[in-house]
UniProtKB/TrEMBL annotation:
<dbReference type="InterPro" id="IPR011010">
    <property type="entry name" value="DNA_brk_join_enz"/>
</dbReference>
<dbReference type="GO" id="GO:0006310">
    <property type="term" value="P:DNA recombination"/>
</dbReference>
<dbReference type="InterPro" id="IPR013762">
    <property type="entry name" value="Integrase-like_cat_sf"/>
</dbReference>
<protein>
    <recommendedName>
        <fullName>MrpR N-terminal core-binding domain-containing protein</fullName>
    </recommendedName>
</protein>
<dbReference type="Pfam" id="PF22822">
    <property type="entry name" value="MrpR_N_CB"/>
</dbReference>
<dbReference type="InterPro" id="IPR055009">
    <property type="entry name" value="MrpR_N_CB"/>
</dbReference>
<dbReference type="GO" id="GO:0003677">
    <property type="term" value="F:DNA binding"/>
</dbReference>
<feature type="domain" description="MrpR N-terminal core-binding">
    <location>
        <begin position="19"/>
        <end position="96"/>
    </location>
</feature>
<keyword id="KW-0233">DNA recombination</keyword>
<dbReference type="GO" id="GO:0015074">
    <property type="term" value="P:DNA integration"/>
</dbReference>
Length: 333
C-alpha cells in the first residue's frame, strides 16, 4: 500500500503542482504495489518543466498545450507511450470530476492521442538501444582498433556485456556471478546457470561464447587501473573479482559492462545507448526473428516460450510481442 509519507520524502520533485498528483495517486492507486505508483510518479515528473513554464497543472492544459507537452518527451517505447496517454487521461478526468479543472474538459478524449503519441517515438534513440550478436562481438575489436590509447579489452571485461544476449543474467546478475567453468558443456554448447534463489536452467549457447568463457576463465591478470594489475586466482567462477578470490558481484558486473560501453562510444561517431535490459531484449528478438523465418508466423505461445527460455515470466509475453512487432522486428539479425 502507498501512503502520503512515501511521497513526502520526494517533496518538491514534481514542483509546485505536486500535491494534486499525490492526492490523485493515493486516491486511485492506494492498494496497488509501491513500484506501480512510483512509476506513475516518475511519468508525472516528465511534465514538471512544462507546467512551470505555463504556470498551471497539466489537468488545465488545452489541446495544443497537451500535444506540445507530450511531444517533448524523447520516448522510444510503445508501452511507455501508452502509459503516458492512460495516465494523463485518467488524471485529467479525475480533476474534472473533483472540480479542479474549471472547464471540465479532458483534451485527451478530444484529440487523436494514440496516433500522435506514436509519432513522438524517437526511432533514432530506439535504434541505439539494441544490437545484433555480430555487432555485439565486433565491439571488442572496434574499441581496440579505434581507441586513441593502446586499450586491451579482456574476456573478463567483455563477458558481462555478452552473456545477457544469450539469456544469462538473473536477478541482481546472479546467474552471471555464479557461472562456473564446469557448468559449460563444450560439446553440446549448453550452460547450466543458477541464480541466488535456488533456480537452475539449461541455456543454449554457441561455440563463440564457449571460447570466450574459456578465455575469461583462463585469464591470469586483470588491469583495473593503468598502473595496477591484479593477479586472478582460478577459483571455479568464470568471472573473478579483483578483491580476494571470490566471484564477481553485481556491482563489479555493472562496472565492467559500463566500461566496455563507454570505451565503445568513445571509439564511434554514433553513440550506443545499450543497457543490460536492452541487450537481453536484443537476444530475445534475434531468436524470435530466426524462429519466424522458419515458421513463417509466430504464435502467442512462441512469445511465452521465449520468456521461459530467458528465465522471465511467460505471463508478461504481451509486452515482448508488442515491442517485437512495433520496434525490433526489422532491426535484428
Amino acid at each position: 500500500m502507498i501512503t502520503k509519507e512515501i511521497f513526502d520524502k520526494m517533496q518538491g520533485e514534481l514542483g509546485q503542482f505536486q500535491e494534486n498528483k499525490q492526492v490523485y495517486l493515493i486516491d486511485r492507486y492506494k492498494d496497488n504495489k509501491k513500484n506501480t505508483v512510483l512509476t506513475y510518479f516518475r511519468l508525472f515528473k516528465l511534465f514538471k518543466g512544462m507546467e512551470e513554464v505555463l504556470g498551471k497543472d497539466i489537468y488545465s492544459f488545452n489541446d495544443e498545450e497537451i500535444i506540445d507537452a507530450i511531444s517533448r518527451i524523447p520516448t522510444f517505447s510503445k508501452r511507455m507511450v501508452n502509459s503516458i496517454g492512460s495516465l494523463l487521461d485518467n488524471y485529467i478526468e479525475w480533476a474534472c470530476q473533483r472540480g479542479l479543472n474549471p472547464t471540465r474538459r479532458n483534451p485527451m478524449q478530444h484529440i487523436k492521442v494514440k496516433t500522435h503519441l506514436e509519432q513522438m517515438i524517437n526511432t533514432t534513440v530506439l535504434a541505439q538501444r539494441f544490437i545484433s550478436k555480430k555487432n555485439l562481438y565486433d565491439m571488442r575489436e572496434e574499441i581496440e582498433k579505434n581507441s586513441d590509447k593502446d586499450i586491451d579489452i579482456t574476456a573478463q571485461d567483455f563477458l558481462p556485456i555478452i552473456l545477457p544476449f544469450y539469456g544469462i543474467y538473473g536477478k541482481e546478475c546472479s546467474e552471471i556471478s555464479n557461472l562456473r567453468i564446469e557448468d559449460i558443456d563444450r560439446f553440446k554448447n549448453l550452460a547450466t546457470v543458477r541464480d541466488d534463489f535456488g533456480n537452475e536452467r539449461i541455456v543454449e549457447i554457441d561455440e563463440q561464447l564457449v571460447d570466450l568463457i574459456i578465455e575469461a576463465d583462463e585469464q591470469k591478470e586483470y588491469k583495473k587501473r593503468e598502473n595496477w594489475i591484479h593477479k586472478l586466482t582460478k577459483n571455479g567462477y568464470v568471472l573473478k573479482s579483483t578483491k580476494g578470490d571470490g566471484r564477481l558481484n553485481v556491482n563489479g558486473i555493472r562496472i565492467r559492462f559500463s566500461k566496455v560501453l563507454k570505451l565503445y562510444n568513445k571509439s564511434q561517431d554514433e553513440i550506443s545507448r545499450l543497457t543490460m535490459k536492452s541487450v537481453i531484449s536484443s537476444g530475445k528478438y534475434a531468436r524470435l526473428r530466426k524462429l519466424e523465418q522458419v515458421k513463417g508466423e509466430l504464435t502467442d505461445q512462441d512469445f511465452r516460450d521465449m520468456q521461459v527460455e530467458f528465465g522471465d515470466n511467460p505471463k508478461s509475453y504481451f509486452g515482448l510481442k508488442e515491442d517485437y512487432y512495433f520496434a525490433y522486428k526489422d532491426k535484428v539479425e
